[in-house]
Write a structure and sequence with these properties.
The protein has helices at about 25-35, 45-50, 60-75, 105-120, 125-130, 145-175, 175-190, 195-205, 210-230, 235-245, 260-275, 280-295, 300-320, 320-330, 345-360, 370-380, 390-405, 405-420, 430-445, 450-465, 470-485, 490-505, 510-520, 530, 535-545, 565-575, 575-585, 595-610, 615-625, 645-655, and strands at about 5, 15, 20, 45, 90, 95, 630, 640. The chain is mainly alpha-helical. A three-stranded antiparallel β-sheet has the order 1-2-3, with no helix packed on it. Strands 4-6-5 form a three-stranded antiparallel β-sheet. The chain has a two-stranded antiparallel sheet with strand order 7-8. Strand 1 and strand 2 (about 15) form a beta hairpin. The longest helix is centred in the first third of the chain and has 27 residues, at about 145-175. Residues about 655-665 have low confidence and may be disordered.
């Protein structure tokens, strides 16, 4: 039986296998919403008449029955004539919607919140975060003024607000105060009367070392409550303000439970400190190993590893020992998926140090493993840079690793090969082969992080090739491995893939947009600015263009590195065609990264809008190798729709030559 799902956390919608259903008129939707609000219980026809009309028409009962028939045909189009309905059933004096427990987003949300209360504190925030992503807008948004919806709207809204605050409370208890701040800020912007949210935000700010900001928040809460409601803050807010002013130690983060792993770590580090002298060279190698482990633990760890890595490399170079420097630089074999550096200047310094060390290494077989690691480092850290050196270094590292028959070296080198495989459009098959080899290699030799990387690469590649079922399977494998190996950051990528999946799978525009926005929220605090900056507006631009909608570019948002491709759309919207033409002509070729095809499509859209034959020809040539693929889906994050659609549009347009707009327009 086909899966029919319903959504009321936002506008009221229904879908079959992800495809939106036509619910006819507003009263059809109201009838469906009323039955969902009844939570599988029967609603008598007389009650439905009263709820659907302020002044019922003469044949209201017959009209309700007509609406029911229309909805049944939409929900179960394959039902044989006279066969009993399975979803919208007749029961005694009325009707009931017998949807499955997981078929309604509001019911899934309630179950997820209840389930989070039963989970260990370390797991509950993620469950609550996933539950909150169900929301697309206010509950029963189309029927906010209806009396029958008020109670259910109020109940669901209060449950949502408590879930936001409970998640923040859990994060504070886990010592993750910085992760709680952004959600609480947004929460209070919409619901400034929540005293508990003010308290949690102030406490989170205090625990991140922002005492002045914490006091400012508490005073803002006091002013708002007194000025707007005429009440004083409650005792918990007053007590917190006094404790912040006194810097009460009771406000400090709770000590983490001392489990067996923590005790072992503490004892091992104490023994290391006793055995290894301060400043010893062994400490440099140990430090880079620690940074490597730190980088996969989460956003804060990744940022800390990136911050300290260049200092460790500089210290190793200062010893004058090329072999030591090579080991320190090459030991940071953290798998890298995104083809744009988070800190381009730090990456450039690492590449320069690696090249210097390569030149200083002795040219003998014993240095081959170190040389391989240095070359792989050059390939990884020069990703997204259009230069022959990156691909050359990747190819040489891979040759050395295969000759040495070292699985860990080969996995590191293949990562470099992957990151240098975006030099033009249409290379998804090549990346898929790299991902498949990494998965097999890592599984055979216990290379946990590279096994995750291989599956993520295949998510991207299979999505680009339009094989979304295979991409789904690899995304599921990633989530399982991430849970097993404690790799929290990879959930960011699978969340974005599932948003792409909605966009590519034809989900309603509003749902696809909401999925992108929910995925973008996962980037807050993830420590990946090279991925985060400009990604959401670019994804939404791709969604609009793929659906044939206006570009609707807002130049005020942070477009990050994609601004050169966004600004001409804004100029067009303002009627400044001549400036848009000039901006289009000034565009350079998109960087050699996973969004190359997406930016080519943005350029194609501009060229089509302006009738620029030269730009159309350029976009056509660049996109042609990717014929048959989904544009931009090789990122695993977003899509601009089928490449073939863009090629067809460009092919049609190239029959005429555009001329520059008249500057006097």
């Amino acid at each position: 039986m086909e899966a029919v799902t319903f959504g009321v956390l936002g506008t009221v919608v229904a879908a079959r296998d992800g495809e939106a259903l036509d619910l006819r008129g507003p009263r059809h939707r109201a009838l469906l919403a009323r039955l969902i609000a009844a939570r599988r219980r029967v609603v008598p026809v007389a009650r439905l008449v009263d709820d659907l009309w302020d002044v019922p028409p003469a044949r209201a009962v017959g009209t309700v029955r007509t609406f029911v028939g229309d909805l049944r045909r939409a929900l179960e189009p394959g039902r044989p004539p006279r066969a009993p309905a399975r979803l919208l059933i007749t029961d005694g004096p009325g009707y009931a919607l017998r949807a499955a427990p997981g078929a309604v987003d509001a019911w899934r949300f309630e179950e997820a919140v209840a389930h989070a209360d039963r989970l260990p504190p370390a797991q509950a925030p993620a469950r609550l975060g996933a539950a909150l992503e169900e929301w697309r807008g206010p509950a029963y948004a189309d029927f906010g003024d209806e009396a029958w919806a008020r109670g259910e709207r109020a109940r669901l809204t209060e449950l949502r607000l408590r879930a936001v605050e409970r998640r923040a409370e859990l994060l504070l208890g886990l010592g993750r105060a910085a992760d709680a701040v952004p959600d609480l800020d947004a929460h209070l912007a919409e619901h400034p009367w929540r005293e508990e949210a003010w308290r949690l935000l102030a406490l989170a700010l205090y625990r991140t070392g922002r005492q002045a900001d914490a006091l400012a928040v508490l005073r803002r809460a006091r002013t708002l409550l007194a000025g707007e409601l005429g009440i004083d803050p409650g005792p918990r807010l007053r007590e917190l303000e006094a404790a912040v002013l006194a810097q009460d130690p009771a406000l400090d983060p709770p000590a983490e439970p001392v489990d067996a792993a923590a005790r072992l770590w503490s004892r091992a580090t104490e023994a290391y400190d006793r055995a290894v002298a301060t400043g010893a060279r062994a400490r440099l190698e140990s430090t880079v190993g620690l940074l490597r482990d730190l980088a996969v633990t989460g956003g804060g760890g990744l940022e800390a590893a990136r911050e300290h890595r260049t200092a460790v490399v500089a210290a190793a170079e200062e010893t004058g020992d090329a072999r030591l420097a090579a080991r320190v630089i090459g030991a940071y074999d953290v798998p890298a998926l995104w083809t744009r550096a988070d800190d381009p200047e730090a990456a450039r310094r690492i590449v320069t140090a690696a090249e210097r060390t390569l030149a200083a290494l002795p040219d003998d077989p014993s240095a081959a493993p170190a040389r391989c690691r240095l070359l792989a480092t050059v390939a990884l850290e020069s990703r997204g840079v259009r230069s022959p050196r990156g691909p050359e270094a990747a190819a040489e590292a891979e040759r050395i690793a295969r000759r040495l028959d070292d699985p860990a070296l080969l996995a590191f080198a293949l990562n470099g090969t992957f990151l240098q495989s975006c030099t033009r459009a249409g290379l998804a098959h090549r990346r898929d082969a790299i991902g498949a080899e990494l998965v097999a290699l890592a599984a055979r030799h216990g290379l946990d992080s590279h096994e995750v990387l291989g599956h993520l690469i295949r998510v991207q590649a299979r999505a680009a090739l339009g094989d979304l079922a295979a991409a789904d399977a690899h995304a599921d494998a990633v989530d399982r491995l991430a849970a097993r190996y404690e790799r929290p950051l990879v959930g960011v990528f699978t969340a974005w893939y599932r948003a792409l999946r909605q966009a590519a799978g034809g989900a309603p525009y509003d749902r696809a947009e909401a999925a992108y926005r929910a995925a973008a929220a996962r980037l807050d605090g993830a420590g990946m600015p090279g991925l985060e900056r400009g990604l959401l507006p670019l994804a939404l631009l791709g969604l609009r263009l793929a659906r044939g909608r206006p570009a609707d570019v807002d130049p005020r948002v942070d477009w990050g590195p994609y601004r050169p491709w966004a600004e001409p759309f804004a100029l067009l919207d303002e009627g400044r065609d001549t400036e848009a033409w000039s901006a289009l002509r000034a565009l350079s070729e998109p960087p050699p990264d996973l969004l190359h095809e997406a930016l080519c499509c943005a350029e194609a859209a501009l060229a089509l809008a302006l009738g620029d034959r030269a730009a159309q020809d350029r976009a056509y040539r660049r996109l042609l190798p990717a014929a048959g693929e989904l544009a931009g889906a090789g990122s695993g994050l977003l899509t601009f729709g089928p490449v073939d659609d863009w090629l067809a549009a460009l092919g049609r347009a190239r029959g005429t030559t555009g001329t520059p707009p008249d500057p006097g327009r």
